């Protein structure tokens, strides 16, 4: 079989056979299909999509391309569950949800990805914690999950290796926003992780891969149905991503905001709403709670009691990081040497934000990738970001740039300003949680 024939078939809008998809995944795994052909195939799928059957075949093949984790031998006394977000600006939910869910009786083996397109990556963010092993061997990963209740790591070479290569190529070839490819990428890793339940946070808006509600619902339905075929019970929340989630965006800055949340010193309202609802849904999908209100109360108590913070510290320590990280994070995280406030061009009310443009501005600062092998500056990003509806009176900045030098800070200054729309009156507020699908 010639892979150029497979590319041409998909280019012309035809459905691929299971054998052709398996051939592609095998070539992805052993790199016998070169990157330029993988890129061409990804673009053909991006333009012509895939049927549900094709997406399911791709998911199954990528899952089988590597190891599938087993947990039965650990005799865990709670359900194995995870969450996945389709990505956005300032999305730091994983660092909060994992220890909160663990405090509520779940086991969360969270295998995360790196930055994709304009969105930040959980693995990149956690690597801003000094000493933290984001790529441990499976023995250590399993030990921390059993002893602590959660572990957040990156995708290892053994787990869905076909997806890992495909993911990195899609990131730099403008082929990220494809529902079947996103579905297969997410589920191949989650199924391989040996989960008994999954909760999806499907975002829509200016900073999401799905810009409209209908696209987000299509994405959520695709994941729920494909997961069901693999016997993975999945619920999905559709959430707003028309602005930064929380007040900070950027790798180390988001870890800092997460520590403020876990220590219960600052819980930004929109971030809090997504964290509480998503974690509560994990308790519902696993059967720990049948009532969402009771689940929400339980997740909130995990934060206010300090139990979630204690679990996060144990996880960091277990994976090689500082022992007392939650309370001493400021002494450990990298800090950008230059900060620069950005003020609006006129006074008024912040009416809209182009979150996609802000994500690209972080890439411009060096906090995201342009090419596969780019080394990130984990200290850069934006802090103190004004929420939509905030009054901008000349004293309140739109946000503060954290940069490696003044040249790069000035380079993104106008990008930040232009991403924000100022009006005379506040817009109608949108709900943060739009819908829950099961």
CATH level 1 name of the largest domain: Alpha Beta
- The outline comes out as globular
Share in helix: 40-55%
The H/E string reads HHHHEHEHHEHHEHEHHHHHEEHEEEHEE
Under CATH, the topology of the largest domain can be stated as Pyrimidine Nucleoside Phosphorylase, Chain A, domain 2
CATH architecture of the largest domain: 3-Layer(aba) Sandwich
The figure for the number of domains is 3
Beta fraction: 5-15%
Strand order of the largest sheet: 1-4-5-12
Identify the CATH homologous superfamily of the largest domain.
Nucleoside phosphorylase/phosphoribosyltransferase catalytic domain
Instruction: Please tally the helical runs, counting DSSP H or I stretches of 4 or more residues.
Output: 17
Provide the residue-averaged pLDDT.
Answer: 92
Main beta sheet strand tally, sense and closure: 4 strands, mixed
**Structural class of the secondary elements?**
alpha/beta
Q: Which spans have pLDDT < 50 for at least 5 consecutive residues?
A: none
């Amino acid at each position: 079989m010639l892979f150029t024939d497979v590319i041409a078939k998909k280019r012309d809008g035809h459905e691929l056979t299971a054998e052709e998809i398996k051939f592609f995944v095998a070539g992805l795994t052993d790199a016998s299909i070169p990157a330029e052909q993988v890129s061409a195939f990804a673009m053909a799928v991006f333009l012509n999509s895939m049927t549900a059957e094709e997406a399911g075949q791709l998911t199954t093949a990528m899952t089988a391309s590597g190891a599938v984790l087993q947990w039965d031998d650990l005799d865990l006394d709670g359900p194995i569950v995870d969450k996945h977000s389709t990505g956005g600006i300032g999305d730091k939910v994983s660092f909060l949800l994992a220890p909160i869910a663990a405090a509520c009786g779940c086991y969360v083996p969270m295998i995360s990805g790196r930055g994709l397109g304009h969105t930040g990556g959980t693995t990149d963010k956690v690597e801003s914690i000094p000493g933290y092993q984001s790529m441990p061997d499976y023995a250590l990963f399993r030990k921390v999950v059993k002893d602590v209740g959660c572990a957040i790591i990156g995708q290892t070479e053994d787990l869905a290796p076909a997806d890992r290569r495909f993911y990195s190529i899609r990131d730099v070839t403008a082929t990220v926003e494809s529902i079947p490819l996103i579905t297969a990428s997410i589920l191949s890793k989650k199924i391989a992780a040996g989960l008994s339940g999954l909760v999806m946070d499907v975002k829509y808006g200016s900073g999401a891969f799905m810009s409209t509600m209908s696209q987000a619902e299509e994405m959520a339905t695709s994941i729920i149905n494909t997961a069901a075929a693999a016997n993975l019970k999945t619920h999905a929340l559709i959430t707003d991503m028309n602005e930064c989630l929380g007040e900070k965006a950027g790798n180390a800055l988001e870890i800092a905001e997460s520590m403020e949340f876990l220590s219960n010193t600052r819980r930004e309202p929109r971030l809090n709403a997504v964290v509480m609802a998503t974690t509560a849904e994990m308790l519902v999908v696993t059967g720990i709670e049948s009532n969402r209100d009771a689940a929400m109360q339980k997740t909130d108590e995990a934060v206010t009691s300090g139990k979630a913070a204690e679990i996060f510290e144990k996880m960091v320590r277990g994976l090689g990081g500082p022992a007392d990280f939650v309370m001493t994070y400021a002494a450990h995280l990298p800090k950008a040497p230059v900060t620069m406030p950005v003020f609006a061009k006129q006074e008024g009310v912040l009416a809209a934000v182009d979150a996609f443009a802000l994500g690209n501005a972080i890439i411009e600062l060096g906090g995201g990738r342009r090419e596969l092998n780019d080394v990130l500056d984990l200290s850069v990003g934006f802090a103190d970001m004004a929420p939509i509806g905030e009054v901008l009176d000349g004293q309140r900045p739109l946000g503060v740039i954290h940069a490696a030098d003044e040249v790069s800070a000035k380079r993104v200054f106008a990008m930040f300003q232009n991403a924000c729309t100022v009006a005379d009156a506040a817009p109608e507020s949108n709900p943060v949680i739009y819908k829950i699908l099961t």
